[in-house]
Every structure is written in C-alpha cells, then in structure tokens.
Design goal:
Elements lengths: L3 H4 L15 H11 L1 H7 L4 E8 L8 E10 L2 E13 L2 H7 L5 H19 L1 H4 L6 E5 L9 E5 L5 E2 L9 H19 L21 H5 L2 H7 L3 H15 L2 H14 L5 E3 L8 E5 L5 E8 L6 E3 L3 H10 L2 H7 L3 H13 L9 H16 L2 H11 L5 H27 L3 H7 L4
Antiparallel strand pairs: 1-2, 2-3, 3-5, 4-5, 6-8, 7-10, 8-9
Helix pairs in contact: 7-14, 10-17, 11-15, 12-15, 15-17, 16-17
Length: 418
C-alpha cells in the first residue's frame, strides 16, 4: 500500500525556515494529531509547504510561523497550521546583548506553556488554539516547539499602539470570569502553591525597563511633566518587594483565593474575532502565549489588560464599571452570589495594587515597543509614539493620585528614600 510519505512531492527533508523541524516532522504531526487535517486531507499528496513568520512586532521570545500546505490535486486548496519555536533573537534585536540567565528563562517559560496546555487548557474553557504536539527546549542541544491550530483566519491581534473599546473590555471580563470560576471549582487537580515562580517575573525585569526611561524623557516632548513623577517614584518602580506584595501577597492578606493567571495580557497575546472583510470585531477569539502563567490574584490579568491595552480615556471609563461587572459575571458563572469568594471592595483594592505595578512600566514599555515596531511610515510611527506617551502619562498620573491618597501608606513603605 502506498503511504502518504511515498506520495508526497514536497521535499520532506527540508528544514522549516532553517530550523531543526522538517516538512516530514510537520506532516507526521498533522497526520497523527490534527483531526481536521486527517478528515479533510489525510490521504492527499502534499506538493509544497511555505512558512511565514507572523510574530514580528508581537512577540519577543519565540518565532511563530504560519505553515501553508498545498496539495498536488488542487494548488488552490490550502491548509495552514502554526509552529511556535522559542528563541531569544528577537529580544536581542530590540534590547541588545543578553546575559546567560535569559537562556534558562526561555527554557522555563517554554516548559511552563507546555505544562499549561497539557494540564489546564481544557479546564479553563476559554478561547485558545488547539495544540497538537510539543517538543522540549534544551538550550544549545534541542529546539523546542509547540505545533498548534492556525486561528488567524478567524482572529487577529491589535498592536500596542492601537486602542481597545468598552465592548472589547466586557468580552474580556466575561471570559476572565469563566476562567476563574472553572479553576476555582476544578476537582482532582492539585495546583495550588505549585505555580508561583512567574508571579513576580516582570518584577525581576524592573532594571531592564528602567534603562529605557532616560531616553523616553528626552524624546517624549513632555519631559517637564514626566520628570517630577520619575524623580518621585523611581525608587518605587525599582522596588521588587512591592511587585511581590502586589502580585503574590496582597490578595492573600485579604483572604481571597488565588486563581490561574495568564500573566501577560498585552495586545499581542489577545486575538479578536474578525468579519468577512478581515476587520477586527469585539469578541475575544483566543488568548495565546501562556508562557508565564502562574497562580496569583484574580485582578492580575484585568489590571494588566486595561493598563497596557487601553488609553487613559478608555481605561478610566472602564474602571467605573469593570470591577462590578467582573463580580456580576462571576455570580452568573457560579449561579449563586454566595459561592463567589470575593467582595467588590477587596477586588478593587487588589486591582489598585496591581494597576500601580503595571502603570510604572508604561514609560519604559513605550520605548521598548517603538524600537520593536517595523513601520516605514515615519509620520505614522511618530503618531503611534505620541499615543503611547499619553497612555503612559495618564497611567503615571493615576498611580500618583492613588499613592498620594488612598494608598499613601504604600508609598511610605515601598517608595520613600531611606
């Protein structure tokens, strides 16, 4: 009997975009694990496979390739699938030479994402791609990989320099509430206390973020406004103890049970549905890149999402209803308000703590993201930059307002010169 491999015309030994994974590896994975491919194309001869990097400007510790497969009997009928391969090359391009510690970290985040898809994905029941096969990453010895469904035909990410709206925010919150209810109610899953490492990951990079601030002050056109804030809060922004408190301890002090946190809900990790014209709509199509998932506060992902994805106007509008709306969505998910283990008051406190930890990242993040942006139109690039500067200003102003008022004691504990 003739096998698929014997019928294929494509060069099976050819590496995919220079990586260790070959066309044969990809086809074997599809024909073994992807039920849709098996049902539609399992016995067809493959003519060619082309891989395109679709992660430029959206991710920094992996390459994501859309692999398009064409068939001998009909070149116009194509099938696409995705390979995600860990790498530090994009981060090096933006940030410069990296120390050896990054190699260990990329190993750990790939391992973390693989663990998530094996153990948590089905439980959470929120939109995300199907995963077909995973390969362990071993630095300098073996490339890692996650082979997954291509959902780009149905969804699309926006960039850091585009805005969200209130309808998108409600969709995000509804999914967040479902995810939290499902993990809180998960039975026969011993997860608590075992996934804390990534909770303070971004706190470990405060020095890397800080190194962009001086350049930001020179370029932002608002140095006279930003400089006093930076002078006042720079010590606070570099205090890793505060990041630990906000991300690990604060909700526990309020007797609020932990949930599973995505950990990096910025624009490049959320796909939105799109219509027949390819225009982005308002419902979440998928949450992607679960590399830094961890146990943490129920307000961690919401605070990150609003601070990094919304401009000051939309965020301030959303903050008038978001906490209550999240609580109401949880009540619907549980079916009984008495089963919800949180109060709106305590959720607000946790949100505020986490907002402040994210807000002070916005200045350095603006510089990092504009450096990564590949936009040939300089006028448009300048407009993107100005948009992000204003987003950062509103975030810093709101953090300043909180630390001068309701949370003055937090500033006195974590931000005062000794």
């Amino acid at each position: 009997m003739t096998t698929n491999t014997e019928k294929d015309v494509v060069d099976l030994s050819k590496p995919i975009n220079g990586h260790s994974f070959t066309n044969k590896w990809l086809l074997d994975s599809l024909r073994t694990h992807d039920k849709t491919f098996i049902n539609l194309h399992g016995n067809r001869s493959v003519k060619d496979i082309t891989a395109t990097n679709i992660s430029e400007g959206l991710g920094f510790i992996s390459y994501v390739y859309r692999c398009n497969i064409t068939f001998n009997d009909d070149e116009n009928d194509q099938y696409s699938t995705v390979l995600k391969i860990p790498t530090l090359k994009e981060l090096e391009r933006v940030q410069g030479e990296l120390d050896e510690g990054y190699a260990k970290q990329i190993t750990e985040v790939h391992e973390c994402e693989c663990f998530f898809y094996k153990n948590f994905a089905k439980i959470l029941d929120v939109p995300m791609p199907k995963v077909f096969k995973m390969v362990e990453y071993i630095h300098d010895r073996q490339e890692g990989c996650i082979h997954m469904e291509d959902i780009s035909q149905n969804g699309k990410c926006i960039s850091h320099f585009e805005n969200i709206n209130l309808t998108k925010i409600k969709s995000f919150i509804r999914n967040l509430a479902r995810m939290h209810k499902n993990i809180l109610c998960a039975k026969d899953l011993d997860w608590r206390g075992k996934h804390l490492k990534n909770a303070t990951l971004f706190g470990d990079f405060v020095e890397s973020v800080d190194m962009f601030i001086d350049g930001f002050l020179i370029k932002c056109k608002l140095e006279d406004t930003f400089r006093p804030l930076v002078t006042k809060y720079r010590k606070f922004t570099l205090n890793k103890d505060y990041f630990y408190f906000a991300n690990v301890q604060a909700h526990k002090d309020l007797n609020m049970p932990s949930v599973l946190v995505h950990g990096d809900m910025f624009a490049g990790n959320i796909m939105w549905t799109k219509d027949e014209e390819g225009d982005i709509q308002n419902e979440v199509a998928a949450f992607i890149d679960w590399q830094v998932m961890h146990e943490g506060s129920p307000m961690s992902d919401l605070s990150c999402f609003l601070t990094l994805c919304a401009d000051g106007v939309v965020r301030r509008q959303a903050e008038q209803f978001a906490i209550q709306y999240y609580y109401d969505c949880l009540v619907k998910e549980f079916g009984d308000a008495n089963l919800v283990p949180y109060t709106v008051e305590n959720l607000q406190i946790c949100y505020d703590y986490l907002f402040m930890s994210h807000a002070f990242h916005t200045m350095g993040l603006t510089e990092f993201m504009i450096k990564a942006l590949k936009e040939p139109n300089e006028a448009l690039k300048d407009a993107y930059y100005d948009f992000s500067v204003l987003k950062a200003l509103h975030a810093w102003e709101d953090a300043d307002r909180l630390l001068n008022g309701k949370y003055k004691h937090i500033y006195e504990k974590y931000g005062q010169p000794k």
